[in-house]
Amino acid sequence: MGAGHFFVESIPRSLRLYVPLNVAMTLFFRWRQLFSDPMGVLLKIAQGSARSSLFLSSYCTTAWLVPCLLRNTFGYDANWMYVGENGGG
């Protein structure tokens, strides 16, 4: 599976995480604004969810892509290529 394909497939998965989270936080902290500016609040929820989902998708894609690129570049697999994934190699 290519990195672009992985990135595109991870966006809906991350949206399933961030949309309910942003809705819950909005209801908890900004419930009064829902009555005064409902469209503005919905727009902020959509923007925040999209931004967070794109960040998480790009972060996960990078975490999968970098070891593959290093392996292909150097022609071998080594522990230092995975530093940070399992506590330092």
Strand segment count: 0
Distance between the termini: 25 Å
Please outline the major beta sheet.
none
Question: What share of residues is helical?
Answer: over 70%
Outline the low-pLDDT stretches: none
Number of structural units classed as domains? 1
Helix-strand string: HHH
Strand share of the residues?
under 5%
Radius of gyration: 18 Å
Shape: elongated
Helix count, per DSSP? 3
Given helix and strand content, the structural type is: mainly alpha
How much is the average pLDDT? 88
Secondary structure layout:
Elements lengths: L2 H27 L1 H6 L1 H37 L15
Helix pairs in contact: 1-3
Question: How would you describe this structure to a colleague?
Answer:
The protein has 89 residues and is mainly α. It has one domain. It is built from 3 helices and no strands. The longest helix is centred in the middle third of the chain and has 37 residues. The radius of gyration is 18 Å and the shape is elongated. The two termini are 25 Å apart. The model has no long low-confidence stretch (mean pLDDT 88).
Quick recap:
This protein is an all-alpha fold and 89 residues long. It has one domain. The chain has helices at residues 3-29, 31-36, 38-74.
Question: What structural keywords apply?
Answer:
single chain, 79% helix, 89 residues, mainly alpha
